[in-house]
Specification:
The protein has a nine-stranded parallel beta sheet with strand order 5-4-3-2-1-9-8-7-6. It starts with 16 loop residues before the first helix and ends with a helix. Strand 1, helix 2 and strand 2 form a beta-alpha-beta unit. 52% of the residues are buried. The protein has a single domain, classed as Aldolase class I (TIM Barrel, Alpha-Beta Barrel), CATH 3.20.20.70. Helix content is 46%, strand content 14%.
Length: 279
């Protein structure tokens, strides 16, 4: 398939908080630690508290997940948390509130969302409210640049980073096309399949990062599969950022109560933060 030819993509001249956080990590010769949790799990207030605990433990960037009823990329751990959040009535307003609560800590804050909820909420409305809450940008795992004209225009207007994914199956041409439309960083999915902790991370991820770097000067962050300090250190050896999601969600799920959950995610963040500093 021939990759579509698009018009040049504009790049906001003002650096976002995400840009600054990633630059600071690079200046320290280390990878950034990116942690994910869905808004509304275990509650709207509980998810905000857990995300702040992750920052206290050492996360540089927080992804606030927007719960969605058809999470195609999410494994069973995240799916259970998302179902719980939806059952409690979590909506886009709660997501924006979580973004605001995390941004107040000084951490770079993103939303991780499938495209349908953003489109349904209103592209311009979502971008406006996210920027006002202190968010830096959005990861859209099921949106490709070819179909993102409205999103590209809205993120440019509000100086938000738009983060698209590249995968092991992506051709070099496709990677180049995707990275040209990214801002903040490029999300390199290190595994084919759904999210979830793994015994080991894919040994093909390093090659994907190398292929991606040939096309862009943006940082390349690797996600899907990292769950402990050793794996974080392994990925940090070749990536600019290490993305961890299911392990944080599982830490909350396994805790006997919310207070213990906060301690668990804080401790996990500290362990992983130590790992990313072993480059």
């Amino acid at each position: 398939m021939t990759t579509p030819v698009s018009t040049p993509v504009s790049t906001p001249t003002t650096a976002t908080r995400l840009d600054r956080v990633l630059a600071a990590a690079r200046a320290e010769n280390r990878a950034a630690l990116v942690g994910y949790l869905p808004a509304g799990y275990p509650s709207a207030e509980g998810s905000a508290a857990a995300m702040r605990a992750m920052v206290e433990g050492g996360c540089d960037v927080i992804e606030v997940g927007l719960p969605y009823s058809d999470p195609q990329m999410d494994g069973p751990v995240i799916q259970r948390a998302v179902e719980h959040a939806l059952a409690r009535g979590t909506n886009t307003h709660h997501v924006i509130d979580n973004v605001r609560a995390v941004a107040e800590t000084g951490a770079a804050t993103l939303v991780m969302s499938y495209w349908n909820p953003i489109e349904r909420y209103g592209v311009e409305r979502f971008a406006t409210e996210l920027a006002a809450a202190g968010g830096s940008g959005v990861i859209t795992p099921d949106l490709i640049p070819d179909e993102a004209d409205d999103w590209i225009a809205a993120t440019d207007r509000h100086a938000l980073n738009r983060i698209f994914l590249v995968a092991l199956s992506s051709s070099d041409e496709r990677i180049a096309y995707t990275t040209r439309h990214c801002g903040g960083f490029v999300y390199a999915a290190s595994l084919m399949g759904v999210t979830g902790t793994r015994v080991s991370v894919s040994d093909l991820a390093g090659n994907l990062v190398e292929r991606t770097r040939r096309t862009t000067e943006l940082p390349v962050c690797v996600g899907l599969g990292v769950s402990n300090a050793a794996q974080a250190a392994e990925v940090a050896a070749y990536a600019d950022g290490v993305i961890v999601g299911s392990a944080f969600v599982r830490a909350l799920q396994d805790a006997p109560d919310e207070a213990a959950g906060l301690d668990a995610v804080r401790a996990l963040a500290a362990e992983l933060a130590e790992g990313v500093r072993k480059r």
